[in-house]
Specification:
The protein is α/β, with parallel strands linked by helices. It has 12 helices and 8 strands. Helix 1 packs across helix 6 and helix 1 packs antiparallel against helix 10.
């Protein structure tokens, strides 16, 4: 029979790791940033670089027009900007709509067979003329000064990639709970950027020097690979908090789960393809950030399972009996959260428990698919 002290130790370590992943790492970054805080340096305003805005679409007839209107309204010199639309096997009116814009604006359409998003981006970047490649999604709406703010950090020659301040729009319980998660993610990025250890970005709001762009593998996304490849070239990834854009999020639990699985699968695969950055002997700063920010979070369902199983093994213990009771209460709250979402009430406590379980279920399935050699080459974001 398993000893109670061993089960308690497993529970304690697992819970400690979960605390570190979802709160302790953030506290550590805040402390490190405070200790290293330096007075701001005012850089002289550099000339605007030439920019190629790359929009990759598949069957986006409902949104591509409003997206192009938004990009053409950006406060940026038209002579320094071009918009490239990579249409990945679209069979609806997407291409026709883009051609209408191309007839009167600096918009170029590239029509590809169904290659997958990454390969379509590779081929479009090969035709880009801008010194900076800025990536956007069809459902992403940018503030008027977004592009100026996004490219401003490139005045520092050490910067190879910039990720913008992407906000998530939506309504209801799904949007609220995802909003908490995303706010946490942006806080991590802000602090990692301050400390010079940022190696993640948002595919819907990011830019990269064309000279630092490395061909993307077909089964891994730009949000994962571009920052890692930039760092391996000795350049920095920077978070531009003033570059504001808004993206949409999944509107139901099923869509949220599928998105979490897909993103985990592609990002787990891509991160391990740049395993040198995970080696603390070669890159101690980035290894620490990547393990804390990404790898451990994707592994958090393992710690949830270990904490749950170990606590349930303590049922009937004269002293530790509250642990299995707390576990059962937590999962009961998650179950009520699922019912709450179906009913559309929006209770905060039960919704948070359910969102945590849903996200971790997505992490687990995504990691298992990655370990099994599964891949996603082309997908519909919607």
């Amino acid at each position: 029979m398993v000893r109670a002290d061993f089960l308690f130790a497993v529970w304690l370590v697992s819970l400690g790791l979960l605390y570190y992943i979802y709160h302790g790492y953030l506290l550590f970054l805040r402390l490190a940033a405070w200790m290293r805080e330096k007075p701001p340096t005012n850089r002289p305003e550099a000339p605007l670089p030439s920019v190629s805005l790359l929009l990759t679409v598949h069957e986006e007839q409902a949104r591509v027009g409003s997206c192009l209107d938004n990009l053409l309204a950006l406060d940026y010199d038209r002579d320094r900007m071009e918009i490239l639309v990579a249409s990945d096997g679209s069979t609806d009116r997407t291409n026709e709509i883009v051609r209408q814009y191309a007839a009167r604006a600096p918009v170029k359409l590239f029509e590809f067979e169904r290659l997958g998003k990454s390969e379509a981006q590779n081929r479009a970047v090969a035709q880009a003329r801008g010194d900076i490649i800025a990536l956007v999604d069809a459902d992403c709406l940018c503030e008027e000064d977004y592009l100026r703010q996004l490219v401003r950090p490139f005045s520092d020659g050490r910067v190879g990639c910039v990720t913008g301040n992407l906000r998530m729009a939506g309504s209801g319980g799904v949007a609220r709970e995802q909003g908490y998660y995303w706010d946490f993610e942006l806080k991590l990025r802000q602090l990692e950027s301050q400390l010079g250890i940022l190696a993640v970005a948002s595919g819907a709001a990011m830019a990269v020097r064309r000279s630092a762009f490395v061909q993307l593998p077909p089964d891994v996304g730009e949000d994962c690979m571009i920052p890692l490849d930039v760092v391996l070239q000795g350049l920095k990834v920077v978070y531009a908090s003033a570059a504001l854009a808004t993206d949409s999020m999944a509107s139901d639990s099923a869509g949220e789960f599928r998105a979490r699985v897909r993103m985990t699968l592609r990002n787990w695969t891509g991160t391990w393809r740049r395993a040198a950055l995970l080696n603390p002997l070669r890159h101690p700063d980035y290894a620490f950030a990547l393990w804390s920010h990404k790898l451990l979070r994707w592994l958090s369902p393992v710690f949830v399972l270990l904490a749950s199983v170990s606590s349930l093994g303590l049922i009937g213990h004269p002293v530790l009996w509250p642990l299995p009771l707390a576990t059962l209460v937590f999962f009961l709250l998650a179950l009520l959260g699922w019912i709450d979402r179906l009913a559309g009430i929006g209770l905060p406590l039960v919704g948070t428990a359910y969102a945590f379980c849903l996200a971790n279920a997505g992490f687990l399935v995504g990691v298992l698919k990655a370990l099994a050699g599964r891949s996603v080459l082309a997908y519909n974001k919607s």
